[in-house]
Amino acid sequence: MSISAAQVKELRERTGAAMMDCKKALQATDGDIEAAIEQMRKDGMAKADKKAGRVAADGIIVVAEDDKAVAMLEFNSETDFVAKNEDFVALADSAAKMVLKHRPADVDALLALDDGNGDFETQRKALVAKIGENMSLRRFEVIESTGGAMAYYQHGARIGTVVALADSDDKQLAKDLAMHIAASNPQYRSADDVPADVRESEKEILKSQVADSGKPADIIEKMIEGRLRKYLAEITLYGQPFVKDPDITVEKLLASKGASVGRYVRFEVGEGIEKQESDFASEVAATAKATMG
């Protein structure tokens, strides 16, 4: 059966798929556009399932906010190029808004939510099939007000931070701290929040470093205590020098404002994901060889 350019154009506008894929689908369904759409949807879901094992370690951080809370979400792709795709960004934004509205318990609950365009798992798979990369709505957090000002900061699309102050309505202070956290990446709020096992592990490392110093035991103990204090200051928000004024610590800044940090969250795209290293030249050579063969 002959397929007209008008039919291909209509199917392409309705599905967003490539022209050749549209033509093949119409040929397979004898020009029935509705049947072609259904078949492409099925094929697309199958393609998406095949790509599910590929590592998606790039992507974006997005936020949504209202008067009482901020939702922050990480949506991963395989490449930075796809992370800038309009449909990819739009889906991430919609998901963040639904997180803020519905407070899903986990990612699976989020994927089951419907924003009017179908549930997010179906939308994700459709976008994977359309673009050709694996994608993952990886994680999200909802940060509630802790009685004071709240602010978020985004460093491009790759780092996002949210700060909820207690005892202070100083919005600028919250914003400054959000920027500080983006830059300095504190692992804990204060020394009191550092788990005992983390402290002990670092202490053992410090002991091994000074064991052969030849100094008296009491001096060694003081050296270890001093280095441990320095380490705790480096990994805690309160102990770090404030980025906008390194002469004071964040703790002293907060004290001068009569404020404290109730909660903070920092997301960075791909953190904790083991990325697959590939030799691009070898990849191209292998592809060319397979094509010629």
Overview of this protein structure:
By secondary structure, this protein is an alpha+beta fold. The protein has three domains: 47 residues, Helicase, Ruva Protein, domain 3, CATH 1.10.8; 133 residues, Tetrahydropterin Synthase, Chain A (2-Layer Sandwich), CATH 3.30.479; 61 residues, GTP Cyclohydrolase I, Chain A, domain 1 (Orthogonal Bundle). The strands form three sheets. It has a three-stranded antiparallel β-sheet with strand order 1-2-3. Strands 4-5-8 form a three-stranded antiparallel β-sheet. A two-stranded antiparallel ribbon has the order 6-7. A hairpin with a 2-residue loop joins strand 6 and strand 7. It is elongated, with a radius of gyration of 26 Å. About 2% of the residues have low confidence.
Helix and strand topology:
Blueprint: H1 5-15, H2 19-28, H3 33-51, E1 58-65, E2 69-77, H4 80-83, H5 86-102, H6 107-111, H7 120-131, E3 135-144, E4 150-155, E5 159-166, H8 171-184, H9 196-210, H10 217-235, E6 241-242, E7 245-249, H11 250-257, E8 260-268, H12 280-292
